[in-house]
Write a structure and sequence with these properties.
The complex is a heterodimer of chains A (about 160) and B (about 160).
Chain A lengths: L26 H16 L1 H16 L3 H15 L4 H14 E6 L7 E4 L7 H15 L10 E6 L12
Helix pairs in contact in A: 1-2, 1-4, 2-3
Chain B lengths: L2 H4 L1 E2 L2 E2 L5 H26 L5 H28 L8 H8 L10 H28 L3 H25 L1
Antiparallel strand pairs in B: 1-2
The chains are: A mainly alpha (about 160), B mainly alpha (about 160).
């Protein structure tokens, strides 16, 4: 992450040059820190959510909660900080994956996550659709289960140019 | 071994390219990849900002196409061979592929990131040329940095 020296241009703060196969672990944390700095005076009610996200990212534990908090913040702040949230989306897509189970006795399959949807349920629905396309028979809702997790350190690339 | 060092002259083995020539090939690859991304965005943009963005992306890929030629010819003037081929260019540029279809602002944001990466690499080579007293290369790269910074200003302004 390279921070601009121009502190008056808030969008220029977020300057991450990661690609899918060189994504740094800290980029997302740094974007949240800048948003916290920006929101401290402007919207104190959002600071708690940003602090929750910062804490959860530091622990790298509850990936689903991280995505839920991110989606909530995105709905409220993306209009003003589109570039920051675009970068945060890409970072989360690079850092996380979805582990999908179709039922008892089946080994979970790993899918990349796409954060086009603005809600966690929308993200899960897009994974269900992708899972259904890759399976001969659509998954049964009663058994279908998605768990989010941080990827292991060695990751596959999603970028064709990477 | 990079593709540039593998290049062979018709007369036999090519001599090792200078660090500046290697840097020029890096910014050539960046420029070519960014040109392809801008063209991709030009083709696929849709929505209420279509006319402005479609035209802006066309101006950008046209400029980048001309710039790629100038950068490659500067490398040749330094007695090095220019990197070529889509696969080699893509590998050197190492930029994420732009997804389509996408919201208008995602095309713009992706181009912001690609322009920033290009500026970062341009600055390294510009500083190297300055350190080694190659004013002609430095001048070319300063002009390229100015263009990309202006483009970044416009793209980021659209996102606000």
């Amino acid at each position: 992450m390279m921070f601009s020296e121009d502190a008056n241009d808030s969008e220029s703060f977020y300057s991450c040059h990661c690609t899918a196969d060189s994504c740094r672990e800290r980029c997302g944390h740094e974007i949240v820190d800048v948003l916290l700095h920006e929101q401290a005076e402007r919207a104190p009610d959002l600071v708690d959510s940003l602090l929750d996200l910062k804490s959860a990212l530091a622990q790298r534990s509850d990936a689903e909660q991280i995505l839920e908090t991110f989606c909530e913040l995105r709905r409220r702040l993306e209009k003003r900080y589109y570039l920051a949230f675009y970068r945060m989306r890409r970072w989360l897509e690079n850092q996380m994956e979805a582990q999908v189970s179709r039922g008892r006795g089946y080994a979970p399959r790993v899918y990349p996550i796409r954060l086009k949807a603005r809600t966690l349920s929308g993200v899960i629905e897009s994974i269900r659709a992708e899972f259904g396309e890759s399976e001969k028979s659509p998954p049964q809702y009663s058994f279908f289960r998605v768990e989010f997790a941080f990827r292991a350190k060695t990751r596959t690339s999603r970028g064709l140019l990477a | 071994m990079s593709s540039i060092t593998k290049a062979k002259s018709n007369a036999g083995k090519a001599k090792a390219p200078s660090r500046i020539a290697q840097g020029l090939n890096q910014v050539l690859a960046d420029t070519y990849a960014l040109m392809a991304m801008s063209h991709h965005a030009h083709w696929n943009i849709e929505g209420d900002g279509f006319f402005a963005l479609h035209a802006a992306f066309e101006e950008q890929y046209t400029n980048l196409f001309q710039a790629a030629d100038e950068i490659a010819e500067r490398a040749r003037a330094l007695d090095a061979y220019a990197v070529g081929g889509l696969k080699a260019m893509a590998k050197m540029a190492n930029m994420d592929e732009m997804e389509a279809p996408a919201p208008q602002k995602d095309y713009v944001a992706a181009l912001v990131e690609a322009n920033e990466k290009t500026v970062k690499d341009l600055r390294k080579v510009k500083d190297l040329a300055g350190d080694e007293g190659d004013s002609e290369t430095e001048d070319l790269l300063i002009a390229r940095i100015q263009y990309h910074e202006k483009t970044l200003w416009m793209l980021k302004s659209y996102l606000k």
